[in-house]
Write a structure and sequence with these properties.
51% of the residues lie in helices and 14% in strands. It is an alpha+beta fold and 415 residues long. It folds into four domains: 151 residues, no CATH class; 38 residues, no CATH class; 121 residues, CBS-domain; 79 residues, Uridine Diphospho-n-acetylenolpyruvylglucosamine Reductase, domain 3 (2-Layer Sandwich). Helix 1 packs across helix 2 and helix 7 packs antiparallel against helix 8. The model has no long low-confidence stretch (mean pLDDT 82).
Length: 415
């Protein structure tokens, strides 16, 4: 009796080990980026076709065989040890033996076969694997049937279907779990993905903040403006800012000697500038400006008026985040002791997510915090006016008749 149990135990353990080997190959082939190992290549090219199962089905089948077999090994080992020892001793010995086997039989040996061999020897075991899979067919079919029943009542509505962004986020998560995407790269990848849906209007420097100069102005005036504003490229206009005719690179001005610079005007060192609609996709503009070697473009609205200025730096910052020059302040917001933040009215609303966790529930036409509260209230607010929506509260600190200059942003109080 003891010999029969021992033989059954050893045979079951062997089956469990063989099932664990093939399960590892199935699971590894499901990875987004599978390792290039000889055993896996041979499995995909030869073994998988001979086994005649889809990858997911094969992984499930041999996972069931492994776990059921492991339970059987535990029972048989306990039965064998109970023949020669007391209950407590038999249980202790059985636990130790099964633990040892679980480590070496279902992990160490399969990993050695997977990583260190070509896998060619497994082809001789295909008939055994097919027989085991056939024996498990009723159980795998039953599980599949039950899963289909659960799925019948779990069909997502059209408005609940995963968005492309959610699919991409799932792929990034899988990449992080498998180790070929670094944890810190998630934000960069998401920025690149979102870049394709961004329009020029969302990243441009808006018209009220554009620093420009008349094309008839003397170069001395340009020199003073460049020193004061710390810009290397400044657009120039004819009569009004709606008539931008080009831009000046201050390097062109400083390359002139003092006498020549005193006699020249801005239009003498003017470079051409292209005009783009504010609805133009940023990725298209970036590619075009790279091909042309351009660094600045004027953004026009549907009526041909100047809406703002966009630079190569604006587009790069959309991907990698803010790029600060030495003369720029480190931060353009001020954190307050109560957890709120004081920002300018021109502060980009896309940055509110990092500060106060802002997630808009509805689409908005605004791109700045000042524009957002104006849109919420339906008028240009006065100082001390506030609005609460989408989990945040915006309080106006400074404003004039036409725009909001400074606000306080905080998380909305819990109700």
């Amino acid at each position: 009796m003891t010999l029969a149990l021992l033989i059954a135990d050893l045979l079951t353990a062997a089956v469990v080990t063989l099932a664990s080997i093939i399960q590892v190959l199935y699971l590894e082939s499901l990875r987004i980026r599978a390792r290039e190992l000889p055993s896996l290549e041979y499995f995909k090219a030869t073994l998988e076709a001979r086994l005649g199962m889809e990858t997911e089905t094969g992984a499930l089948t041999f996972s069931l065989i492994k776990h059921i077999g492991l339970a059987a090994v535990g029972c048989l080992t306990l039965a064998v040890t109970a023949q020669n020892a007391g209950d407590a001793e038999a249980l202790t010995v059985a636990i130790l033996l099964v633990t040892f086997f679980a480590i070496f039989g279902t992990y160490v040996i399969p990993q050695i076969v997977y990583r260190k061999t070509s896998g060619h020897a497994l082809v001789a075991l295909v008939p055994l694997y097919r027989l085991l899979a056939l024996l498990m067919k009723p159980l795998t079919w039953t599980l599949g049937f039950l899963q289909s029943l659960f799925d019948l009542g779990d069909h997502p509505r059209a408005d609940e279907a995963p968005t492309p962004e959610e699919h991409i986020d799932a792929l990034i998560t899988a990449g992080e779990e498998e180790g070929f995407i670094e944890k810190g790269d998630r934000e960069l990848i998401q920025s690149v993905v979102a870049f394709g849906d961004t329009t020029v209007r969302e990243i441009m420097t808006p018209r009220p903040r554009v620093v420009a100069i008349r094309q008839e102005a003397p170069l001395e005036e340009l020199r003073e403006l460049a020193i004061h504003e710390q810009y290397s490229r400044i657009p120039a206009f004819e009569d009004t800012i709606d008539q931008i005719t080009g831009f000046v690179h201050v390097r062109d001005m400083f390359e002139l000697d003092d006498d020549e610079r005193a006699q020249r005007k801005v239009h003498d060192v003017l470079r051409p500038i292209r005009a783009v609609p504010e609805t133009k996709p940023v990725n298209d503009l970036l590619r075009e400006m790279q091909e042309e070697g351009a660094h600045m473009a004027v953004v026009v609205d549907e009526y041909g008026a100047t809406a703002g200025i966009v630079t190569m730096e604006d587009m790069v910052e959309e991907i990698v985040g803010e790029i600060h020059d030495e003369h720029e302040p480190e931060r353009d917001f001020s954190a307050q002791p109560d957890g709120s933040y004081i920002v300018s009215g021109s502060f980009d609303i896309s940055r509110l997510e990092d500060l106060v966790g802002y997630h808009p529930q509805d689409d908005t036409e605004s791109t700045t915090v000042g524009g957002l509260i104006t849109e919420w209230l339906g008028h240009v607010p006065e100082p001390a006016e506030h609005a609460e929506r989408d989990g945040i509260t915006i309080t106006v600190l400074a404003a004039n008749q036409v725009r909001v200059d400074q606000v306080r942003v905080s998380k909305a109080a819990s109700k």
